Every structure is written in C-alpha cells, then in structure tokens.
Amino acid sequence: GLPAALPALPLELTVLYNSLLFTAGASDSAIKGEAEGIRQGLLRVLEACGACRQDLGTEELWQKVLQEVTAEELQAPLHRLGALQAAWWLAAGRLGSVAGLFQLLSTAEEPGRSHCSEGQNKLLSLIKAWRVPSEEASLPLVQSAKDLKEILCTAAAFLQGLQELEAGNFPTALSLLQEAAGGFCSKKILAQIYTCLGCCAQRMGKPQTALQHLKRALQVDFQCLPALSHVAAVYHELGETDGELQALTLLYEALRKNPPAAASSSPCFLIRAELLVHTPVLTSLLRRHHPSEVKYLLAQRCLQDGRVADAVEHYLDFLSLLQEGLQQQVPLDGSSALPRIPEVFLEAASALEQAGRHQDAITVCEEVISRTADLIPRVLRVEERLEQPECSSPGAELAAGLLSQKKESLCCLAWRAAGYLHQGWAWAKLGESKEAVTQFSRCLSDLLRLQLHGSGVKPTENLQAEVEVLQKIRLLALIGRGMQFLELGRHKEALLDFQYSLQISPGDPAAASYLVQALWELNRKQEAAAQWQKLSRSSPGEDGQQRGQGRPLPLYLVSCLEQAMFPHSEALARSIQDYLETAAQDTSS
C-alpha cells in the first residue's frame, strides 16, 4: 500500500521476480494464465516515474516502460522480469508477443541493431541476442537470468518445432527440434524431444532415422514409454512383425509395472521447459497407453500375422481384463486403439476357431449374441438418401441423433449376425453339419431385419460401411449354409443358396465355384460345364478384385472369408473337362 519510490524499486522487482518463480515452480504443473504480479510491478515502475497508465494492456505496458524508463538501476531488474514474462507468454503459446518483447529488450540495449540474419529463426535469434544483465551486484536470485534464458531458448525451439510438425513443414520442424535437443533441459524433456524427432522423421518417410531418434529417447529416459509405442508403429510400417511385437511386449510389461517417473538428473530449477511446453499436438504424440490397449494390439497383430496360438493367449488375457473395470480406465475420446468390445469378442472367437478350439469359440460368440439381443429393432430401414437438414436448422440435432442411433443398431445387428456366422463355421469344423445349418439360418434370419429402400438400394454414405459389412455377412452365411447342404446331400437347397449368393455379389468366385459343384451333383452337367467355362475365362486378377472390392473387412470376418473359399478340386475339373471333350466329339461326329 506504500507509494512507489524509485530507490526501493530494484528491491521490489527482485522480490517480485523471486516470488513469481516460487509460485510457478511450487505448483509443478504447466504455467497458465497471465502473471498479474508482473503487470502490477510495471505499474509501480510507471507510478514512481510519474507516468502511471492503468488502461494499457500488458504488451503496451512493457513497450511504454522499456521506452520511457531510463533509470540505470532499474534496467537489470526489468530485464529479468521481462524474461519471466516471456516464460508466461511461451506457456500460453504467444510466440509473437515473446518475439516483440525481446525485440524491445534488445533495442533498449542497442538501438538500431538487427538481431536476425537471413535464414535464421527470428524468435530464437532474438532470445539468443538478449544480453543477460549482470548479477554481481544483484540481490540473491532463486534462479539466475542466464539459466532462464537457456530454458527459454529450448522451450521456444521445442514449441516452434511442434507447430511446424503439426503444420506438415517437416524439414523446418526437424531443424527446430534438433535445436531444442541441443538445449538446456531435463532428461524427461530431452526424451520427449527425441520422440517428436522420431515422429517427424517417420512422417518424412525416413523410418530408419525415426528408429534412431526413438531409441535415443529410450536411452535418455526409459520411462518415456510413448517412444516405445512409436517404435512399434514404425516397425509395423516397415512390415517387421517380430520387431513390432517385441516393442509392444516391452511396452506392456513396462506399463504393468507402472514405476514412478525417474528423477531428473538436471539441476533443480523452478522454471523448467516442461512447465512451458504443453500443446495438444505434444499431448497427442506422448499419449500414455493403457496396458489393455497394448494387450489388444498384441492380440490383433498376432491374429493378422497368423500367429494363432499367441493371438488366443493375448485375447483371453484381454477378456480377463474386462473384469477389472476396463471401460472406466480407457479413454472414450476416440484416441484409444481399442475397437468396440463385441468386435474384440468376435476376433477372439476367430482366433479360437483357427486354433481348433471350436467349442470355446461357440461360447464366446454366445456372449455377443445374448448381449445384443435386446439392442436391435425388429425392422431396420435404410433409405437410399436421407434428408440432411441444414446445420443451423432446429431439426439438425435430431437428425444427427437418429442417424447415430441407426448406425448403432446396424453395428449391433452385424455383431449378432457375425456371432451366428462364427458358430456356424465352428459347428461345421466339428462335423455337425445340421447344427451348422441351424446357425447359418439364424444368421440369415437376423439379417432379414435389414430393409434397404430406394431405386438403387444403395444406403446413404453415412451408413454405407455398416451395410457393406452386413451384406458380406449375408454372402458368407449363404455360402457356408450351401456348403453344409452339399455335405448333407441336399443339393437343391445348396444350389438355391449359391444362386442367392451370386445375386448379392455377382461374380463372386467362391459362390460361382460352389454353384458349378451343386449343378454337377444334380446331374445338370451342361449348365455346370457352361458355368465352369465362364468361371475359367475370368482372370485371377478379376477374382482378386471381386474379393477385395469395397472397404477392408473387419478383422473378425477375415477367417470366415478364408473358410468360404472354394478348395481347388482336381477331380471335379477333370470330370467337367472329360464331359466337354466328349460333348465336342459327339458334335463333330
């Protein structure tokens, strides 16, 4: 409450500097908001000089103080306070304000001098050009201005590198991040910088360089576990499954142990780079995975790579984690690697089937079927085009809600139908053809709930993916049931199923091949031979294109697609060829 006095201001500003440092450092969390104490300090300086202005913003206040206050004894305390102001602005992402402040600080020292050469980063050049005030005659400081300058340089390079990385300017980002890596920071921050360098190199199409940076991050601080997850991602991109699985296994074990963060070996400072750098892009790059997410990735990659025994083990471990309240522990903001839980159950069933554990697969699928029973309406209508009201119209929110509800119902229908589909294949593998037919029929009966309306029966784009999956399930169920009808000698019913299959997916090679077999078994040899010739004329590329058309299949359907493929039959091909040769001879004679 005392009036500002010029002789006491150096002491006041030094006490303010120290107290703000203690305030920032004691919280041990990111600096946020404005430093109101700095503003009050500047107003005290102007008051002592007889030029108080309450209506100025903080930037204008700094400009006025540095341009008009010439007292020599105030220069060093003001410069130290300016560096502290820069820390607050850096933490707020106000890089332009920081550059302007250091321009003022440097101009006050040497008017007219340029501090940025061509090709250099302006902000870094300005910070480096700032002359730290002498501290020989200063009152005790809890953190020197020299150390604060080094930390500001590191944080400014890191922040700008992250901005350029997010903007896709990778060479510039790489240069700035390398500058930050050579700066003054703790091991924790250094590991984070190397992780970002690795991500930058990966996006530049340099996976080996990315691996070098990421391994360096782990050497600096093995608790920087996001670096390990990025290592797995790079190995995945390179197609090196062994390396990817090894990285994921190490990550899972490290996350399970969940040790405390390693203490920094750097000197303890109140203002540190980690308090100044907290951007959404950094949060995204350094997102810490939950152990269950990593366990799922291990299961998924093993299944995709055909390591069925390992996949089964990982899926069963993951399902056991569900008993530990998994849904409360995994983020629901879309950043999680986990798919919907019913899909994980179905993938587990697929792995169990491939491992020959058919009864276990049936049990897992029954869980999905029972839990989705009450979530599907009797009839699901999907129109060719849905009226999309304007975003600003009152009905927009309602329409979006209805669309989301319909999408959810289609997903539930797909999961339930896929459960029956997997059970059908499992019973078929157990040699129980009648039970397999029952499950395939239940799958097809469920799918009758889906009704497509419109001239082209093409659903709106928002629901296209869900409808394509349901149509693929219908195709696989028809082929599966037809195969079992052939096993039971019910050739007419098999023929109908294969004909329906070709209506759903014209030219499907598996359905067309089984149709030939059904016709041949029914002694309709001329039709069978004609279909066989038509199928033989189609190139392998066309077959592959037919199978791979549209969006990629969900992982839980891949094994069903493989089981539905027609096994090459030398005997059938030879019989048809003999029939065609005999028919040709009869025609010529």
From TrEMBL:
Q: Which InterPro entries match?
A: FANCG, TPR-like_helical_dom_sf, TPR_rpt
- Record key words, sorted: TPR repeat
Matches recorded under PROSITE patterns: TPR
Q: Which residues form the TPR repeats? A: 475-508
Q: Does the keyword Signal apply?
A: no
- What does the entry give for GO biological process? interstrand cross-link repair
Query: Can you name this protein?
Result: FANCG protein
